[in-house]
């Protein structure tokens, strides 16, 4: 080991060459993976839209509205869905930072009357086996067809209508908050479509 | 000592006699952190195997060119580059696994198993031995993580590679999915592993 002597010049050159080679090869790989990365993200979004919305045949991704509201800090993505130019629903990305391990992002699909069609979890870092059960049909089922104006988005412990996940009440609260946010954004956008 | 081993022994030492997880207890952070399911354990094991193999190859090739005093920073740059490559490739082509492994991919950089093999083995041995060593150690690590993941998933979630074996409502030993369960499962698996390998 170390046939080269540890002189100042040798050490500097070695580290310089190592970092340059590393930098160049990383840049190269980044160029290769950039396309597929963006494609994978888009595909995930389209799959989520398909699962939360009723059948549609426009391209909601192209018609996305970024809504700025009081209820959310950042602008919220709102996807209108049409079938043969009739509005069939709206998908809104709701989020909450009150999850057990931070940010939870969900996509909520609403029917034109404002009731929930389906919900898909986009991003979460909850505890595997506890909080992650919010992705399962058994939990999401209770929201389908419910209208947030009559179905209180609070867990039963807080006198609401939502059955909390066993051992993951905090996750459920955050999930509810994100759903509520999505609903509020949709309602607000309907009132002032110019936003 | 390592030089005297045949390639077969060199390969098997990583899996059995010097298994990085069950015998040497190296790389505990990913071992305990990501093994909440069999699939995660397997994914993490394979990602580590790839990084270990590539870093051993490169370190073994450039070992005579690197002055002794800067060898650690040089090794870390090499390892970090391969980890970043793995991260980018996973995000682009296997986004599902990328999301599951999350923070633990960048942490492969500081997995002491990889730097340990670069320093203790690849920097002293020829290319072939280093490749065999990386494969043995990497496969040993992958097997250990997968077994641990399977055990925890089975006990904690009642499923095997995401296939449910019990009904959705059945109560499982959730403890095993949580971090303390990782320690308990690892301890018992390590005990069993050493019992079996030492007696035969």
Care to describe what's here?
The complex is a heterodimer of chains A (195) and B (200). By secondary structure, chain A is an alpha+beta fold. Helix content of chain A is 37%, strand content 22%. Chain A is built from three helices and five strands. Chain A has helices at residues 8-52, 137-140, 169-191; strands spanning 65-67, 76-83, 86-99, 102-110, 116-123. Chain A has a five-stranded antiparallel β-sheet. Chain A is elongated and about 75 Å long. The model of chain A has no long low-confidence stretch (mean pLDDT 85). Chain B is an all-alpha fold. Chain B has one domain. Chain B has eight helices and two strands, in the order H-H-H-H-H-H-H-E-E-H. Chain B has helices spanning 7-15, 28-34, 38-62, 71-93, 95-101, 112-122, 127-157, 179-199; strands spanning 159-160, 163-164. In chain B, a hairpin with a 2-residue loop joins strand 1 and strand 2. The relative contact order of chain B is 0.20. The model of chain B has no long low-confidence stretch (mean pLDDT 85). Classes of the chains: A alpha+beta (195), B mainly alpha (200). Chain A binds chain B through residues 1-7, 10-11, 14-15, 18-19, 22, 25-26, 29-30, 33-37, 40-41, 44, 123, 125, 127-130, 136, 138, 167, and chain B through 36-37, 63-71, 73-74, 77-78, 80-81, 84-85, 88-89, 91-93, 95, 99, 102, 123-124, 156-157, 168, 172, 174, 177-178.
